[in-house]
Amino acid sequence: MCFFHECFRGDAVSSVQDEVNSREPGSGPLYDVLPSWCPEQLAVHSDAYAATDAHQEEAGYEAEPGVCDTAFGWKSLGEELRPNDVTTDLTTFQHGNRALASKEMRKSQDRGMAHSEESRLANLLRRVSREDDRDRRLATLKQLREFISHGESKVTMVKQLDTTLSTLNDILNESSKLLWELRQEAAACVGLLCTVLSYEAERIFKWLFLKFNSSSRDEVKLLYLVAAQRALEAAGERKAFSHIMQLVMSNLQSILENVDTPELLCQSVKCILQVARCYPHVFSTNFRDTVDILVGWHIDHTQRQALTQQVS
């Protein structure tokens, strides 16, 4: 049966070719010579082929459509290989690559930004240490305080926390009375640093109280207490120091018991009052001892009237 079919097909094709060759050029269209046994679907206008070609070119395939493909309704190679999910997967794959590239680019930018912030902080610390002109040092220190207050580079500040505290401590211990404003600005930087890096607050407060107890100069001790007050004021009622406030109050109570100058007394009381406002439950355990010390200063007739009024 297959052999007969092949022979019949070959004879039919040969007959068609003979008729085509026998006709003169330009005498009529090709489909006029097709035999009567050929299905009507074969006589398809050339526009249909053009549409099919364009459809396959859009799909990215160069395969030429055959007559039988159109006549018997077979799908073209482009239609067979162009399901909807292929385009979706390709788009997702492309989007995934784009997202991955964007993520890597952001990481690179973050690393560059972190390096830039570290360089800026290191530059500020170096300038404030080496600058000879008082006004320029003060301006640089204000830039440092602004850098700390933004809080956008906490990782950088934690990495260089020891260096920053050491630099500020050197300024606090300056001996020139002409640099008092500069030293107060440095104390404000320490307090602000403690507030911004609240998760490092315990470390910074311990550093402050250790420096206070080891210092032999009352004016430097006063600056350490100024730094503590600035930190407590900046934290305010946000309760950022709740986990360490008992430690802070204990150290302030010890300082209050041992101060021997009106200036240190008043500054330590300012810190304790800030604790009393924001953490009254912590201050309540030290209330009696604090009142006893203040009464002792109040009844001391050798003290200035201004101090007696403040203590009262």
Automatic annotation (TrEMBL):
InterPro entries, A to Z: ARM-like, ARM-type_fold, SMG1_N
Pfam families: SMG1_N
Key words of the record: Kinase, Transferase
Molecular functions (GO terms): kinase activity
Keyword Cell wall biogenesis/degradation: no
Domain Serine/threonine-protein kinase SMG1 N-terminal: 10-112
Residue stretches in coiled coil: none
UniProt keyword annotation of Protease present: no
Protein name: Serine/threonine-protein kinase smg1
Native species: Characodon lateralis
Record gene name: SMG1_3
